Amino acid sequence: MLAAAGVLSAAAxxxxxxxxxxRYESGYVSGDGVTTEITPDQRTEPLKFSGTTxxxxxxxAADQRGEVLVVNVWYASCPPCRKEAPxxxxxxxxxxxxxxxxxxxxxxxxxxxxxxxxxxxxxTYPSMPDQxxxxxxxxxxxxxxxxxxxTLVLDREGRVAARISGAADPSVLRSMLDGVLAx
Length: 183
Hints:
The structure is a single chain. The protein is of the alpha+beta class and 183 residues long. It is 34% helix and 22% strand. The chain has a six-stranded mixed beta sheet, with helices on one face. A two-stranded antiparallel sheet has the order 1-2. Helix 3 links the parallel strand 7 (100-106) and strand 8. The termini are far apart.
């Protein structure tokens, strides 16, 4: 009886731990599509991250305080990243005059593939390489390291106000931005 229970438990655990076929496609682990909005009284400390953009400019989240900041984690060969890129650019353009800033965090690519991606999709907001995971380390607890793409909306104080794990639905991201801008 105990042996049979042990075999059943091991089979159940191995099924939970090893079947990731629904999450893997073309070498990436997709986000699960979960969206979260955090009320101002429940937000944690401002995020602190910085880096050098592909254009050689220094970027610091602290320098964006007073503005709403959208942080998009991506890489060039990620299918949902390619799908969401034109919409993110459109949202960037639509909200720029309202003080919304965008920055990309590229977790895999060297400069060549990243710039080709940005040129192909007409991305005009800056991105920073993060192949050594220093920025992702600073985003720990906010972005799952294996959920690419992921998008964060930071409020004017630099705190996470909303998050999308997986490709950003444009209407959801716009709604999140509208809510944070109204605060």
